[in-house]
Structure formats: structure tokens, C-alpha cells
Specification:
This protein is of the alpha+beta class. It has helices at 3-16, 46-49, 97-111, 136-147, 159-162, 175-178, 210-213, 265-273, 285-295, 303-324, 333-352, 359-364, 367-370, 375-379, 381-410, 417-427, 431-440, 447-465, 478-498, 526-541, 553-558, 600-603; strands spanning 20-21, 59-67, 83-92, 119-124, 154-156, 168-173, 179-181, 194-204, 233-247, 250-264, 472-473, 504-509, 514-519, 545-552, 572-579, 585-590, 607-617, 620-628. Strands 1, 2, 3, 4, 5, 6, 7, 8, 9 and 10 form a ten-stranded mixed beta sheet that branches. It starts with a helix and ends with a strand.
């Protein structure tokens, strides 16, 4: 079964269980200041887990594109990737543990046909000090499902300390491994934060335990269990049961108990192929074969070459999807990560012996496996490949300049760790390349000194970026929410004055101001901005009602509802409307974010004033505005 078939089978399975299938959200999250990328399937769904009403109801499923930049350094083994797809299904106060566990059992063992004798499960052990009981319901439900096919599955207590005992297939683990909240373990959760126990699913790649028993194994003297690092087991999915909320006195049950399932598509495919190396999956076949052809090196024959293969495969696939979502290589934020991916891929492509300029051939090899699920990857293929080619050209130039500087410093004697860091930050010259050249010349670099300089640089960067975010809302406080609604009113005013070709192109809203980008080809006169100001203040003074309505997407478009990027929305959409007491509609847009209930709430923060208008980029203008007391 190919990867795209697993994705389709999963979505069809949950569609039959009355779930609405929603499209993947972009890799750049909207209205989430906490992260640069969408790193989990749960991330775009979080508002609905916290009580906001989803326009498609209480049962949702999808396959979400995800990217985790923190995993860049982990890539090179057989299971870590920076880009991946997360299969997800959610219940917002609808079904709970019993149905979810039964459905996942059926999907894994019947729909995919995985051997239940190779499946293992973990459950929450409980925390008596915090008054949170162990999740016996989940453990006993898995046990009964094993029993229904004639397998007596024992429940283990301390597998991480004592190893697995014969017959044990279900294990209790402490909260570090079996609890989910945005803050981590229960003790770290702030008051008001929701969370709950989870139950994870594992596949056993080595049921005979031969690798574990091998004398050369790095883990031969450690107890083997499903959460150990020996490589025998792979987590393929996780059910989170969000049923608790932190209070001043401890934990209490939420009124809306939710299910949040996330399963790695590639990991399920690896289990189905019974091969822990995800880079052998069909989605990598074309690119892997292309690298073999270009480099004349076979995958899997040599550990160093295989390591390089995996980095090129992962980084170019991730670059394809990041570029498809509109990210360009740069020195800041998401663009910096994309630049790093491409440049790191170039380094390892050189190591493999791939000719210069051929990364685009590898990138094209990822178009076909994803063109049906993600048509935009195909539609933007020329743009994507152009970005990769241009970045390679720039990096080649950077390498040439860095090489000159390296030779200059080598002529003066030994290269220090600080020298290597200067070459990295000033010339973009990778440490690995500096180290490799220095060793070839019979020298050695103090890597600890390099790491010290690098950490100092990271600390300074983190300090400089504290409180900084790329776009959307800084938080959901009352003032930010007021600014958010006022920003929508401003867009309505701009469209009224400048025409219906004006659309949102980005926003950045804090408690101090709103910054808003919109499509328009020329400078907006001050007198026009004054009329937009007057429009917003009139809506505020009217004490207009702010409400949301769930509509069919096509009906919303036909009704003239304002919105950008319609293709990313599901078939039913949330439409926000600002309507005055006399029936005047001041604003009507697609938006699922937080808003005031009446524009009178905005008036509490003062009068709306546009303070600046300037160019943002070609064809895009930027305005800044504040709410200030008269």
C-alpha cells in the first residue's frame, strides 16, 4: 500500500464515521505568535479544543502538513524528518475514549491490515499527588480488543525500569511520556490550561528481538521497552484525551471532553512496509533514484553516504513544501530556515558527488508523489525550483568568498573555534566544511569554543527577538481583540475607498498598535486615509453588533463576503459580520479569530487613528494604526 493510499484510506474511514474532512492548513501558522511553523496536526485545531465552535461541527479529520525546524540536526537516522504529514481526527465534546480506541484499533488492524501481535500501547500511570488517577479505562479497552481476537494482553507497570515481561502489550508510563498540554507535564501547567492523558500506539520492527540481543548493540545492557531508543519500536500514533483543566486548587474535569488524535503518515507507512527506514517509502523513490543516478552512489551501501542521502532527501522535500506555501530564502524567520535547509542540502549533495545545479532535478522528483493531495505543489513547481536554483547560485558565490577568507586565516596559522564561528556568521561558511579543510591540512579546531560562541549568539538572538512575532495576533487579550476587530473595519473602509481589488496581504497586531498590509499599487493619499479613519470610528460609535455565521463556502463567495486564499478553507466557513442598529453592515469577512461582541468594546480603548502608510513590497501597501484617547 503506497503512502497516498494510506492517507486516502484514513480520511475515508473517518468520513464514514461522520467526520468532516478539512484541508491542510499552511505551514506558516495564522494568528499564532508562538512558533514560525505549523509543527503538529493539533496546532491549527487548538481554538476548537479550547471551546470555540468549528464551522463543520464536532467531528473533524485531516492530513496536516507539518514542519519542525528543531529536528534539522536529527535528520540522518532512519526515522527523523523535518517535513511530515500528520493524520488527525478530533472530537470536540462528542465521542470519547471508548469509540476512539476502538476506531484506531479497527483502522490499524483491519483497514491497514497491521498484525495486532506487533502492536503495543502505552497509557497514563496517574499522579496521586496531583489527584489525577491512572487511565485504567484506556488500558482496559485496549486489553479487551486484544482479547476479542484471542490474545491475552498483560498490562505492565515499570517497563522503562525493568524491561518488558512476557505477555505484556500495554504499559503505564509517567506523565513525561503519557500526558499532553501546551505547557508539558501537569505540574508545569498554568491555571486555566487544559490537558489530559494520552495513549500511544507502537509498532514492533523486531519481534524476535535479535538486534537487541546482538553483542554490538549500544543498548544491549539496557532494559528494552516501547519507549526506549534501541530502534526496535516506532510510535505510529497518539490519542490525547483532553479532559482536565488546571485550577487554583488542583485539577478538575472539563465540561467539554475532547479527543485529539495524531498519527504520522510516514510512520504508519513504514510499519506497513515493515521497514523502519522512512527514506525507503514510495514518496522518496523518485528522488532517491535520481540521487543514485546523479551521484553514482547506491543508497544503503555506506553509512556516511546514506547519512548524506537522507539529509538531501529530507531537506529538498521540506524546501519544496515551504516554497509552495510562499516562503522564500532570506536571513530572517521562516526564510532563514528555508535558506539553511537548501544550503545544508547543497553541502551533502557535494559530498555525494551530485553535479552542481542538479538539486532542481531532485526537487522535481517530489512533485509527482504529492500532486494529487497537494495540487499547489504541482502548480507552483516552476517557482519552487527557481527558488532552489537561485539559492544554490548565491550559496556557491558565498562558498567562494568564504574559501578565500579561510585561506587567508590559514596562512596566519591555526584556525580557532572563534575563527570558524566568524566564517559561519559572516560568510555563511559551514563549520563542517571549515573543520574538514583544517583536518586535511593537518590541523584541528576547538569545537567547544565554536559551540560557546554559537550559544552566545543564540542567546543574544533570543533576547533580541523576545516578544517578536511574524504575523497575526500577539495574544487574545481584550485590547488585542479590539484591535483585531478594528483592523477588519479598516479593511472594509479601504475597500470602500479604493475598490474591491483591495485584499489583506498580512497583519501584525499587538496591544500597542495594528500593522496591516493590503494589495494596492500606489501610495494612498492622506485625505483617503482620513475617510477610512472616519468609517472605522463611525462603526465604533454605532455600537454595532459583532456576530459569526456558518455558511457554505460557495454561498459566502456568491454573497460577496471578503476573504483571501479561499482555496485553503473547508466547504463550510465562519463568516464574521459587524452590523449597526440600523442594519448597516460595516464589515463582512471570513475569519475564525477572536472578536469583540460589540464595537462599543473598542471605544473603551479610544479613537481609531491611522498613523502611517508606506510601501511594504511590490503591489502591497502597509498601514499602522492605534487606538488612543481623545
Amino acid at each position: 500500500m503506497q503512502t497516498h493510499q494510506i492517507r486516502a484510506k484514513y480520511l475515508a474511514f473517518f468520513q464514514k464515521k461522520a467526520h468532516a474532512i478539512v484541508p491542510s492548513s499552511p505551514l506558516v501558522p495564522e494568528n499564532d505568535p508562538t512558533t514560525l511553523f505549523t509543527g503538529s496536526g493539533m496546532q491549527p485545531i487548538l481554538p476548537y479544543l479550547l471551546g470555540e465552535r468549528h464551522p463543520l461541527g464536532t467531528r473533524i479529520a485531516d492530513s496536516q502538513k507539518c514542519f519542525r525546524s528543531q529536528d534539522i540536526e536529527e535528520v540522518g537516522d532512519n526515522r527523523h524528518t523535518t517535513f511530515f504529514e500528520m493524520l488527525g481526527n478530533w472530537s470536540f465534546g462528542d465521542y470519547f475514549k471508548e469509540k476512539q480506541i476502538e476506531w484506531m484499533w479497527t483502522f490499524l488492524t483491519v483497514e491497514l491490515g497491521l498484525d495486532p501481535k506487533r502492536l503495543y500501547f502505552t497509557c497514563f500511570r496517574g499522579n496521586a499527588e496531583l489527584g489525577i488517577p491512572r487511565d485504567t479505562e484506556s488500558a482496559e479497552r485496549w486489553q479487551s480488543l486484544f482479547r476479542s481476537i484471542g490474545i491475552e494482553a498483560a498490562i505492565g507497570e515499570d517497563a522503562e525500569k525493568d524491561g518488558m515481561k512476557p505477555g505484556e502489550r500495554i504499559f503505564y508510563y509517567p506523565e513525561k511520556k503519557s500526558w499532553w498540554s501546551r505547557a508539558g507535564v501537569p505540574a508545569n501547567m498554568p491555571v486555566g490550561e487544559p490537558g489530559g492523558p494520552d495513549t500511544e500506539m507502537f509498532w514492533d520492527f523486531d519481534p524476535t528481538n535479535e538486534k537487541k540481543m546482538h553483542e554490538a548493540s549500544a543498548w544491549k545492557d539496557e532494559p528494552c521497552h516501547v519507549n526506549c531508543d534501541c530502534g526496535r519500536f516506532m510510535e505510529i500514533g497518539n490519542n490525547v484525551f483532553m479532559e482536565y483543566k488546571k485550577t487554583d486548587t488542583g485539577f478538575e474535569k472539563l465540561t467539554q471532553q475532547n479527543v485529539d488524535f495524531g498519527g504520522g503518515l510516514e510512520r504508519m507507512a513504514a510499519a506497513l512496509a515493515d521497514d523502519p527506514d522512512v527514506f525507503r517509502l514510495d514518496v522518496f523513490d523518485g528522488a532517491r533514484n535520481m540521487i543514485a543516478q546523479l551521484s553514482q552512489n547506491e543508497y544503503g551501501k555506506d553509512s556516511k553516504l546514506t547519512y548524506a542521502y537522507r539529509i538531501v532527501l529530507d531537506h529538498i522535500r521540506a524546501a519544496v513544501f515551504l516554497a509552495a506555501d510562499g516562503i522564500s530564502p532570506s536571513n530572517t524567520d521562516q526564510g532563514y530556515v528555508l535558506r539553511r535547509l537548501i544550503r545544508r542540502a547543497i553541502r551533502y549533495a557535494d559530498f555525494l558527488g551530485i553535479p552542481q545545479g542538479e538539486l532542481s532535478s531532485i526537487a522535481y522528483s517530489f512533485i509527482m508523489p504529492y500532486m494529487d493531495a497537494y495540487p499547489d505543489v504541482n502548480m507552483k513547481s516552476v517557482l519552487i525550483v527557481g527558488e532552489i536554483d537561485e539559492e544554490e547560485r548565491k550559496f556557491r558565490s558565498t562558498l567562494a568568498n568564504g574559501m578565500k577568507e579561510l585561506e587567508r586565516r590559514l596562512s596566519r596559522g591555526q584556525i580557532s573555534g572563534k575563527d570558524a564561528f566568524d566564517l559561519f556568521t559572516t560568510y555563511g561558511f559551514p563549520f563542517e566544511l571549515t573543520e574538514e579543510i583544517v583536518i586535511e591540512r593537518g590541523g584541528k579546531i576547538d569545537k567547544e569554543e565554536f559551540n560557546t560562541e554559537f550559544k552566545r549568539h543564540q542567546d543574544l538572538s533570543r533576547t533580541a527577538s523576545a516578544g517578536k512575532f511574524k504575523g497575526g495576533l500577539a495574544d487574545h487579550s481584550a485590547k488585542v481583540t479590539a484591535y483585531h476587530t478594528a483592523t477588519h473595519l479598516m479593511l472594509a473602509g479601504l475597500r470602500k475607498e479604493l475598490g474591491n481589488d483591495v485584499h489583506q496581504a498580512g497583519s501584525n497586531i499587538t496591544e500597542e498598535r495594528t500593522r496591516f498590509d493590503f494589495t494596492y499599487p500606489e501610495k494612498v493619499p492622506r485625505e483617503t486615509l482620513d475617510r477610512v479613519e472616519a468609517y472605522v470610528n463611525a462603526a465604533i460609535a454605532a455600537g454595532a453588533t459583532v456576530a459569526t455565521t456558518v455558511m457554505e463556502k460557495e454561498a459566502a463567495k456568491a454573497a460577496g463576503v471578503e476573504g483571501s486564499f479561499w482555496e485553503k478553507y473547508p466547504e463550510k466557513v465562519t463568516v464574521y459580520q459587524v452590523t449597526g442598529p440600523d442594519g448597516t453592515v460595516y464589515s463582512e469577512e471570513l475569519c475564525g479569530g477572536p472578536h469583540v461582541s460589540t464595537t462599543a468594546d473598542i471605544a473603551a480603548f479610544g479613537r481609531f487613528r491611522i498613523t502611517k502608510e508606506e510601501a511594504s513590497s511590490a503591489g502591497v501597501r502597509r498601514v499602522k494604526a492605534v487606538l488612543e484617547e481623545d
